[in-house]
Predict the 3D structure of the following.
Amino acid sequence: MRTFITAISIGVALQASAIGITSPSGDIVLNVDVDASGVPIYSVDYKGKNLVSDSRLGLTADETSFADGFRIESVDTVTVDRSWEPVWGEYSTVRDHFKELAVNLKADNPERALTLRFRVFDDGLGFRYELPVQKGPNYLTLRGENTQFNYTDDHKLYCIPGDYDTDEYLFSETTFSGLPEALNSYRRHSEAQRTGGNTIQTPMLLKTGDGVYVNMHEAALDGYPAMLLDVDTENYDMTSHLVPDRLGVSAYLQLPFNTPWRTLIISDDARDILASQLVLNLNEPCAIEDTSWIKPMKFVGVWWEMFTGNQKTWAYSDDHLARPGETDYTKLTPNGRHPANTDNVKKYIDFAAENGIDGVLVEGWNEGWEDWASYRKNRQFLFDAPYPDFDLPLLRDYAKEKGVKLIMHHETAANAADYALQLDRAFQFMKDNNYDAVKTGYVGAIIPRSEHHTSQWMVDHARDVIERAADYQIMVDSHEAPRPTGLCRTYPNWLAQESARGGEFESMGGNPPSHTCILPFTRLKGGPMDYTPGLFQTDLSYYGEGKTDKAGTTLARQLALYLTMPSPIQMACDLPENYNRFPDAFQFIKDVPVDWSDSKYLEAEPNKYITVARRDKHSDDWYVGAITDGNARTALIDFSFLPKGEKYEATIYEDAPDANWETNPQAYRIRKVKVDSRTRLKQHLAPGGGAAIRVVPLK
Amino acid sequence: MRTFITAISIGVALQASAIGITSPSGDIVLNVDVDASGVPIYSVDYKGKNLVSDSRLGLTADETSFADGFRIESVDTVTVDRSWEPVWGEYSTVRDHFKELAVNLKADNPERALTLRFRVFDDGLGFRYELPVQKGPNYLTLRGENTQFNYTDDHKLYCIPGDYDTDEYLFSETTFSGLPEALNSYRRHSEAQRTGGNTIQTPMLLKTGDGVYVNMHEAALDGYPAMLLDVDTENYDMTSHLVPDRLGVSAYLQLPFNTPWRTLIISDDARDILASQLVLNLNEPCAIEDTSWIKPMKFVGVWWEMFTGNQKTWAYSDDHLARPGETDYTKLTPNGRHPANTDNVKKYIDFAAENGIDGVLVEGWNEGWEDWASYRKNRQFLFDAPYPDFDLPLLRDYAKEKGVKLIMHHETAANAADYALQLDRAFQFMKDNNYDAVKTGYVGAIIPRSEHHTSQWMVDHARDVIERAADYQIMVDSHEAPRPTGLCRTYPNWLAQESARGGEFESMGGNPPSHTCILPFTRLKGGPMDYTPGLFQTDLSYYGEGKTDKAGTTLARQLALYLTMPSPIQMACDLPENYNRFPDAFQFIKDVPVDWSDSKYLEAEPNKYITVARRDKHSDDWYVGAITDGNARTALIDFSFLPKGEKYEATIYEDAPDANWETNPQAYRIRKVKVDSRTRLKQHLAPGGGAAIRVVPLK
């Protein structure tokens, strides 16, 4: 990491009264004060207009309150301009440029101290609570955080329902006043512990009538529960709602303690929201010294077969009372519908090797899948016990010979306690068998039974797993874990997470085309998503057996997702046989990188469209992806990001004129055109469609 | 294990009505029936008198009830007479002789099946519920078990208060009708989650007006919560009370499932209660194939120093906010009162080597002791991070050179979840540093926060730890774990547990002399206790600094405890300097074995006195221990257990005539006498006193 710092620290002792700082550009103005009751308050203006009006700040614990009675003891300000180089990501260098204001608060009777630290960037701001060692209690049983975000009008909201255990929802596009109806329209998710009231989750997006976009989320969630938002739909206010454990406690804190950063990414240009690295900037630098083993990758896998309606299963047997570790799987009657078997996995390895795909994920390889009574037993899976039809030594050697990496799968059935007990053995077993990456899963209700998926203990568990994985030089792609908050900067072996409604839902109700037009504005601001793009057979009735799902996408759009949903670990989710039916289109998946030196967001509007260009980290090639919602669209692709005077050949993977996600999804064309920095390309996108372009310098 | 079996199995189909079997001797008669509502009931007679009158049996779960509507479908009976050889214990061979009755129950609407399995021995009985795979639900969310024990009169009870989290209480000697007052007399234990009502714990002892003794406990507690007893003090009934988790669920069960055995050890001779191996007999055979590494042992340790009132601490520093893994302990200011330091530990190693003591326990060697805010943080201790003043490589090599084994200490602060996460590393760290045994501790409120010390998850955790330890060939002495139920037969690396008010309380309020006269009748029926005998400096005012505690014991009695409190791992708890003040008495601790080929209980009355003789497993030497309560007593030691005609020399360590636990505890004498099988020795025991005798064949 290279760092350039220009820092000026000013300590000012104050008697009272408001303090303000601005963003480096001056567009964002932050004011902080305490009110007559000593309650800390803040407000935010953007380009001369109030965005967040006076909003209260505070924490409440059983032992004491940090909510009122404060006076401003002193303030510290500093300006920082530095940059850092991520191990992987959208940019090879990230600028971290902000003005910082630390407001040191004191209270008497009882004595309390609290620092509010704000960082104002050109693209938004973050703030956190810092609790120094106190004269009073230094352990807090935190019941809540009262962080308000008071907006001034009935803005548009893009959000999903508040939930302690899942974020696999479609987004609503609504307003403050429309939120109750929007939330009522959700059917209760089977895993969900829906909160009462008008509660929503972050990351979410807000858009004002003036066309100002605000992404609300948090950064560096560690040792603390996830934050939901309680929405006052009449006064246009939001208040933090910390996920409690099942006993009602939000967090156990030992001081000194800093909360996660509460973040607002702000711009009147939607493209800036997508380009923002604010959440990463508010995370700690990389904690892993040697990162040479962290390698972005593409993979195929034994996975989608279980979603195509052909009755294939993760389980080896249909005896749902089989018990891992007690059942003799070598004698259990196999169901004959278990694709995680040696012959089938060999076919995936062959396919990966032939097409330069780095890895092969295999789900359903280990004992325990027969019985999905998660939460109801204290041992569900074994992580070092392959099923008898999965010849691990053979496959390990076969994959190695073919130059392909097997990717491990650890489904825990949400028994995080049992996973912790098996963790060292599971990771050692991986290394012994030449695995470098694992996909984890937490489907079901959490054990320890005091916990939710996003309560403090589980946040700690997720970090423990990542740290332990790093000890073994293992990369992680976690599913059903607490949604990302930029911790992948600190732990770059945390390649991706699910933490949203992913591609799998194309076989369970479908994802409308707009879904991938809102995820980059919301969920992706926390970190990469394992969305599993690359679906070529989008009409699942192809598989017969009563399946009628139609994915909300054209084939060409699936290629564009590799650009619009950036991730250092990207699946090619479909079956090899489907890729073999469309080898020319599959060529794009073979070519597209997963790590970038630069990114240019060309067009963007939430829920509607995204066009982005990215430069390969390891060549001079550029790639462009464009997607639209359910409406056809003409993307205007401005190639001025190319170096002046250089000539390129663009290979365009596009929807055919008659393509349509619903009626004609597999109609695509591939054409080549010459482009340079002066090119302005009008690119047709079908309803639910997209375009993917590879741009290669002409020699 | 050698096994002799005489088994006859009889399957009988019945329409209805009572079934009875007797113990092999015929003294105990068991009757089983279903009542008019189809509720299973049983009763027990002893020597022609009713002991337990008709008592209900049943289980209740959220999914269905196993409490009524039953008919007896069939019964199976079998007589078994076999024996087995424990890895260690009071006997080299244990006879397992019983008649078994399996009552197969069926119910309609909904269909349910339940087997009640009874085993009736000459010294008592056990029974359990067996839930086969059902046509109905095969997962149960168990809310309770309704096992009644209906007694017939206001019997005497020896028991401690019901508690979900601790059993470190003094015993009450009371009656059914006196129980409420007895329970009210307890001050609330700081760690205790006292249950409401007249609830008591097992193991407990009952004595009828006819002089029949009954020990009530359970055997083979695994995958199930511990059982307390709710006492109906007016009707003299008891009902099982399963420890729930903090969400109110007793157990999550997957069928088939067998509950632990509910056990009654019954005799009109108190000595039979002490001699009974019934609880071990009801446990599964040894699950560890190679047990050669399991070695009974004696040890000294850096431990009592922290109890003697001299302000010595487990912690390296007095900074109570220090955080293991985050604090730089090499820079933290040491408090200078930390006995787990290299020089001091070397002295203990020297002492052990000089005196043939096998091991040296060191408490306070690892990071984390500064901060005892257990339950309030998710990481308390590191188990592979020695304090900077504990030079582990040096001590490892020094101990090895001296032929002494260091014993590890893992205090978890009751954070079982974090211990599970660190377990493999902790055990590997032990093996890397030549440790073979660990003392575990769970002081505080349990994490996972859904759990109690004795709820189902923690019972599973304890078994997981023992199994994992066995994988590393590590022996375990667990403190604050679920009290033992004979699982040490199955896992003989589980050498001992605390699970009662131990010797440490001599510095925290004291243990009256009667305490060790009731523990063998109660707590010890589950398995060995790490009571930590060997206290020579019993008057703690010796150490000054305001300490006034006087242990309820003479010095000679402390020697007798090595016989009356048998354990394969015995501490010599006092400071080396105190042993050096009384080298002739310490000779007994050097000599006394910890593993036996035979045991003869010569005299016994609960809360009053115990006299026992044991034969060394590895020689022809016998040892005798006799203790009394607060009253002086003359023990009558009948040496007829010696082989006829053989001559022995007995070395008697006895209270001096003027010894008294309170006023003159260190007055002891050592004398030698010749004994043979005809010797009847009248042995004086002082108030709170005892005698220990080594009996060696004359060559």
